[in-house]
Predict the structure.
Amino acid sequence: MESSINSDVFLTSEDIRYRLRGTELPSNPIDVVASLDGSRWLEPMREQLSGTLRAAGVLVPIIERDGSLHVLLTQRSAELKHHAGQVSFPGGQMEDHDGNVEEAALRETEEEVGIDAEHISVVGYLNTMPTVTGYAVTPIVGLVAAAAELDIDKSEVEYTFEVPLPFLLDASNDIRGELTSYDRKLPAVEFHWENERIWGATAFMILSLRKVLLKQ
C-alpha cells in the first residue's frame, strides 16, 4: 500500500553524506547492553544478552534511481536458522577474518545479493543494537551505485525489493503495533510498502536512520 509522502523528507545523496558525517564504527561492537533503556529492554533480556552477544554488521543500501533515493531490502529465506522469512538488510555475523563489522557487512552483502564493495560508498554508521537472537548489529549506511547488478544467493535470500527513502522517513507512514518479549508487550513501529511488511529490528534501524537524517 503506497502512501503519500511529505515533501519535507526528500533528501539528496549529499544530504545523507553531510548528516552522517562524524559517525564512527563502535570501538567495541558488542558493548551495547549497559546503555539499554530499561523501559524498553526488560531485565531478563538484559541478563540474557550481556556477555553472550556476537558482533554483526548490516548494510543499509541506498540507491539513487530516476532522481529519487531508494532503500534496498531483502526477504530472507524461510530455511535460515535466525530471522527466517523476515525482511532485513543484507549482512551477517562478523567472522575471524573480518577486520571489523563494516568489513563483515560488505562481505555478507556481496555474498547475499552480489553487490561488491567497489559499488558501495560507506557514508556513516548507526548505533549498534542488540537482537533477541544474540547479536549486536551495527548498521553501515552506504550509497550504492545504480549500475550495481544483483546476484542473489537463494539459499539466504528469496528476493530483494526497494522502498523509496522518503516513504520511510515520513512518520505518517508508520504503522503502530506491538512486539511480545518475555510475555510482555512492547510498543513497536512497522512499515507496509506494497505487499511487504517491514518490522522488528529492521524497522527499528530505519527509525534510527530517520532520527539521524531528519535531526530529530
